[in-house]
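Curious: can you check?
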Amino acid sequence: MAAPTRNLNRLALFEDLGYKPHPGQLAIHRSQANRRVVACGVRWGKTKCAAMEAIAASLAPKAHSIGWCVAPTYDLADRVFREIQVTLLEQLRHRIIKSTEHDRRILLRNMAGGVSEIRGKSADNPVSLLGEGLDWVIVDEAARLKPTIWESHLSQRLIDKQGWALLISTPKGKGYFHDLFLRGQQGRDPDYESWNHPSWTNPYLDRAVIEAERERLPERTFAQEYEGQFVEGSGAVFRYVRECATGTFEGPVPGKRYVAGLDLAKVQDWTVLALLSSDRRIVLVDRFHRLDWGLQVARIRATLLRYDAPVMTDTTGVGDPIHESLCLAGLLSVPYPFTAKSKAALIQNLSMLLEQKAIVLPSPQVCPELTDELESFQYSVTDSGNVRSGAPSGVHDDIVIAVALAAWALKPRQKVRRLVQFIDPNQPRNLRIAGRI
């Protein structure tokens, strides 16, 4: 891939705008790599650096250009986009043709008199990322982005125009962002260049203030957030996801018994039915939304009958009437109402199975959404100081919950009617009664 054309004196432009990049930022601005990956600690200056790259690209003489600022959510996408917007309004207002808030869009008159377009985009709805080719894309908090967003929705937008990408983020574990970072190290891929710096290499920060945070934070958290290190499993609830993700989907096998977990859509989420065999292999994930409840019950019933499987159902909110509907349809549905305690137990059980590598998941090629959700699921600290687990903003966890419910059905428990008894080969296969947990 050819190097991007940059026939604008960007350093002179930055000086005119009052922007004085520090040495780390300057190295990024001078790079001619088509794919630049910046993995640095917080407050290092990634946002400012990215915004200035976007402004320079939009002012470059061209008949027409278009670039996107993308992040996992609109709130995060706004950080780079607002930095661009404020700079343009303060320094280059005369070049703004149009600026609209509702769709985060700026039209700009560039140095050749052409029109350049800047858009702020959220990755929480991948469909919105389809369409036209791009001259450039900036991805903020790239480590939080689902790998499929970069691989299937963003990188492809750059091909026809030979556009460039700048991915910036504080490291977060070792996922696809770490893989991209490694491609930019030691000339492994000539199209990539990458940088990794701790926060204190920003000369405009007070090192003493940063060091004070070291005493207040867990070692792994400080290493990730301020030292910019790729800490394995930092904040992650589930480990060894990819090591366990070696399976494939399969139809019902004579002699095998199955259980299912069912997580029902509330508003924007997905309804997910996950099938687990008695040897702990996820053999099917059925994921759908925007169907009325009657169609959902019919679809769920057909799958459960096909596998002759009982189901553990999340009965929180809308789940309770669906549980009753499944029972009335002649199926064994065991209710699992969610509380903070019951959800924690559910997640802990699945985490233990992954830790022990005692469950086989479908491979990322078979079910990429499951891999994405498991790797995104994380611990966080609430404002009240309580530790919770869940998907970060803009990321679904429906498949995780469905798989966890199915796994819970095989967990030996005392003083309860165990769902596992219904997959005992000695039990009648036509047993269809509602159990209780």
